Amino acid sequence: MRQVTVLGSCGAFPEPGRACSGFAVDWDGFRLVLDLGYATLPRLLAHWPDGVVDAVAITHEHPDHCIDLHGLFRMRYYGAAGLPRLPLYCPPGVLDRLAGLEPDVDLTAVFDLYPLPGTYQAGPVSLTGVALPHFVPNAGIRVQADGTVLAYSGDTGPDPMLAELGQDADLFIVEATDRDGETDRPVRNLMTAAEAGRWGRRAGARRLMLTHFWPGNDRGAAEAAAAAEFGGEVLAAEEGLTVRLERLLPLR
Ligand SMILES: [Zn+2]
To answer: Comparing C-alpha atoms, which of 211, 210, 205, 213 is closest to residue 232?
Structure first.
């Protein structure tokens, strides 16, 4: 069984009852987490009550994508001593943020760091981090095995590498921050929902999921704007939503 469950869908800071970026991936029994932003850890524990995780990939060091990795660190360090070190795929700045919170503890006791960008074998999947434009180094993440492809942008401005990241993906999770005035900014480090749809189409993705909604944004309007550009099924990330990863036919 291959599926993705949304732990959080908000950009920057959470809305009431929601969380920031995070996804729990079940891949034939292998448990992979993509991002662990504000308030995602309790949702991860609701999804996997035994707290066992096989690998974590974090797109970048902003706290709305990595702060609950600190909680997971403490769980493993204080609550689950003796477990093997946890493979952590991320730009190195993520560990620097954690080190600031735990200056007197050795993080490598818990985490086995695999720096992104890069390509690695993570359990049954090939995991690739692709550099994308953001205020800090951000790695979009592509996970694939046996012809099934899952891709996730993290936070990014419009960039041709998005088409490579999401090429033929069965599910392409793309940020749709849609902050006011986004397209007027001289340097683009985030996207609109319409741009998410456009890049999903350019990638040839078979299904698109929007995420990282700016708090207060109209998510229905975002879905409509993306659908007008994408031309296929568009989902809006929603806490607790589970999507099966199945090989889908190309849209065109
Ligand atoms: Zn963010």
So the answer is: 205
pLDDT tier at 168 (50, 70, 90 boundaries)?
very high
Distance 170 CA to ligand 1 centre (A): 23
247 pLDDT tier (thresholds 50, 70, 90): confident
Residue at 46: amino acid letter: A
Q: How far is the CA of 66 from the centre of ligand 1 (A)?
A: 9
Give how far Cα 131 sits from Cα of 52, 190, 252, Å: 29, 14, 28
Closest Cα partner for 19 from 36, 3, 31, 5?
36
Rounded distance from Cα 20 to ligand 1 centre (Å): 8
| Longest Cα–Cα distance in the chain | 55
| The pLDDT value given to residue 252 | 57
Q: Are 196 and 210 in contact (CB under 8 A)?
A: yes
Ligand 1 centroid to residue 252 C-alpha, Å:
32
Cα 157 to ligand 1 centre (Å): 12
SS3 state of residue 228:
helix
Both structure tokens of 199: 């890049």
How far away, in angstroms, is 249 Cα from ligand 1 center?
Answer: 31
Q: Is residue 11 pLDDT above 60, yes or no?
A: yes
The Å distance, Cα 238 to ligand 1 centre, comes to: 16
What's residue 246's pLDDT?
81
The C-alpha R_g of the chain, in whole angstroms, comes to 17
